[in-house]
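hi! just following up on the protien thing from before. the input was this:
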Amino acid sequence: MMARRTAGRARKSPVRRLGKFSLFLLALAVIAIVLIVLLILVWLKPGPVPPIGPQVPSTPSKERPEAQPADCPDVLTVVIPGTWESSATDDPYSPSANPNSLMLRVSRALSKDFDSSRTEIYTVPYTAQFRNPTNLADRQADYNVSRTQGYKRAAGKIINTNKRCPLTSYVLMGFSQGAVIAGDLASNIGNGRGVLEDGDQDLVLGVGLIADGRRQPGKQNDVDPSPDGVGAEIALGGMGNIVPGITMTGPRNGGFGDLEDRVQSICAPGDLICDSPTVLNPLAAVSKLANAASNPIHAMYATTKYWEADGRTATQWMYSWAKDLIDEAPRPAHE
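and the predicted 3d structure came back as:
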């Protein structure tokens, strides 16, 4: 009897309990599979079909008024002189700090062709100096101070004009240190980093750079002859702040962005400002750079006649280019 009872209990509990548990697990597995299938079907459900043809830009073109104040120029021409060719107190409409300033050859010729209603010619007054750190007797302003002042004054003029004259177009030009400043303005505008409001990049008609210290061949329209070297600030870019007051900033972040096809760059082969080789001795290179503004090659842009093999000097080329831009610029209505 005892053996029979014990055998009966052994037959009932483990097998039945195991069978029920297996069925429960099977049911859970089936439910899980059904849920997974439903999720996959929802995930694979096709969304709305995108329209065929041109897409609407995510940022619509900026709306502008139909007219602007009567005293607003059609074009603002911003001219930025090079090292030693300006002063912080110079008159932006009648500059006289350096009568031999290279950019005066361009701006004076333009002022004879156009009245101030067609183009306001603004020559940025700034310190325009470069202290030689290897010469203890040099009392000039540091390059960082000079370059920053020039940038802020040029940017301020553009910002104020854009706010008051929303239909005015822009031509930017610079030589040497002034080309670095003009190029930095163009880079920030073209990459949406201020100066002009976003959506106003089309107002920049063109940017002309002579001996740009941040030049990168192929990153803009290079006027022949175009040497293989780079700007001094790129060649010395790895030195950072090794020399106090002189920060070599390297290549421009994003290049010229949306303005790349509107930037013209002229560089003379052998001009260390814009045609620098790899630098091995940064301190010696900075010393050369401090004196490069007076070397014969850097001073040739108004005299040597072989730009684009057409017999014009660099300043004649720049004048002709700017004149065409202003001639063809929009003529907005005035209130």
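DSSP finds seven helices and eight strands in the chain.
Confidence is low (pLDDT under 50) at residues 1-12, 34-60.
cheers
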